[in-house]
Inverse folding.
């Protein structure tokens, strides 16, 4: 008779008794001659001499129990397994809960025994280190880090940041729900026994193979996420802003092909296209110089300065359309036309003031966004907002990003918080806040 370790503390982890089909509790009997699957009996069936198919009551047997010391006296094998399971459930260092789950040892005993035999033991530490290196080199199953040098964020469940990170929990370096999260359900009731037919056994093996393929797909997706750093959404937003608009569109389209190439190759591909765009723009500029008869860079500087002056003059003239459209005061409109005619004639116009109509204060005309940096990044509704509140696109994009970041961090945003964050006119802040709420960019707290 040998005393061997059991399957675990939980009786539901062991196969049932072959005699009465009840859950086994230690000690129990294992036939040493029947196999390859273990033939297990409880003590009651063993004392009755239970026999089944090839199993006979006079076969050699083994007593399965974990009530014997392994590492040091006073700690049985069952308690060693219970300690390891408690540390896995409660976390390393949470010795109060570990002792509460074990119920047979104090927290001081749990801590000293674990540190002595599993942390400071050179045999265990070297073995675990070699196993970890082998596993990392063979399967590349490392955790998906967020920022190793910083304290990882801990977003609340169903917050904006949690949704942006696809349910990823940086503190645990894992996802709240795995890909194909219920793949294990197909295996939970499968049990291989000796009396299975060949067809049934082949069917069970096929189910296991399917499960392995689903696990490989889950690991493949994790590897893509880990290699490309796809968790940090803000990283990609910052990278996209570094490129021109045409390269940003290419970056967004080519992101789906990152799964077939490595991260370095994908970044080289995007950088090469960005360089190509810069070269083409520089070639067009040089061709424009050659077309204008410019042969030196000194002449090119004069040409660029004159070109900017012409563009400024053209923008000033386009303001006439805005004045005729939005100014309802006929006298002020006449003054503007006289001033524009004097400019066209090359005469310095007299300084005149636009009088205010009798109806009261006249509102300022909408802001002309032509040529302003950042205009191409706005949609039509955002352009209309910037024109009405007379806010340049660059400042609007900065205020918008600040409000979005604060809303993601807080899980919502109030008007008072927006006014404290943006130090501009309170009426403009309210219009921006109402617009972002209406468009769905932010939510109210």
């Amino acid at each position: 008779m040998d005393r061997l370790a059991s399957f675990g503390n939980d009786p539901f982890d062991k196969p049932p008794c072959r005699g009465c089909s009840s859950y086994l509790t230690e000690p129990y009997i294992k036939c040493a001659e029947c196999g390859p699957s273990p033939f297990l009996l409880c003590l009651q069936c063993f004392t009755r001499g239970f026999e089944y198919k090839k199993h006979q009551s006079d076969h050699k047997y083994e007593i399965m129990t974990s009530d014997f010391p392994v590492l040091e006296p006073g700690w049985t094998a069952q308690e060693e397994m219970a300690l390891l399971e408690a540390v896995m459930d409660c976390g390393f260092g949470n010795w109060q809960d570990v002792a509460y789950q074990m119920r047979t040892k104090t927290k001081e005993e749990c801590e000293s025994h674990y540190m002595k035999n599993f942390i400071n033991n050179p045999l265990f530490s070297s073995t675990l280190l070699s196993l970890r290196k082998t596993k990392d080199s063979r399967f590349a199953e490392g955790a998906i880090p967020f920022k190793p040098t910083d304290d990882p964020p801990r977003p609340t469940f169903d917050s904006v940041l949690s949704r942006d990170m696809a349910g990823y929990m940086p503190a645990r370096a894992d996802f709240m729900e795995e890909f194909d999260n219920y793949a294990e359900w197909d295996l939970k009731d499968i049990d291989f026994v000796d009396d299975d037919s060949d067809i049934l056994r082949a069917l069970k093996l096929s189910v296991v193979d399917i499960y392995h393929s689903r696990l490989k797909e889950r690991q493949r997706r994790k590897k893509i996420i880990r290699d490309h750093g796809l968790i940090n959404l803000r990283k990609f937003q910052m990278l996209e802003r570094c490129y021109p608009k045409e390269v940003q569109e290419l970056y967004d389209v080519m992101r789906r092909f990152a799964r077939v190439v490595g991260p370095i190759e994908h970044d080289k591909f995007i950088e090469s296209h960005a360089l190509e765009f810069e070269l083409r723009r520089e070639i067009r500029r040089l061709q424009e110089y050659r077309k204008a008869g410019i042969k030196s860079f000194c002449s090119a500087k004069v040409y660029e300065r004159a070109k900017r002056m012409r563009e400024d003059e053209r923008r000033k003239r386009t303001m006439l359309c805005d004045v005729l459209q939005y100014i309802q005061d006929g006298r002020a409109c006449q003054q503007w036309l006289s001033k524009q005619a004097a400019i066209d004639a090359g005469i310095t116009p007299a300084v005149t003031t636009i009088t205010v109509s009798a109806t009261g204060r006249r509102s300022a005309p909408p802001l002309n966004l032509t040529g302003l940096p950042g205009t191409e990044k706005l949609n039509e509704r955002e352009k209309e907002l910037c024109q009405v509140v007379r806010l340049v696109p660059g400042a609007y994009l900065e205020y918008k990003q600040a409000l979005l970041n604060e809303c993601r961090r807080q899980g919502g945003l109030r008007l008072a918080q927006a006014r404290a964050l943006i130090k501009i006119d309170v009426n403009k802040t309210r219009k921006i806040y109402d617009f972002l709420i209406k468009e769905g960019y932010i939510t109210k707290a």
Notes: The chain is about 55% helix and 5% strand.
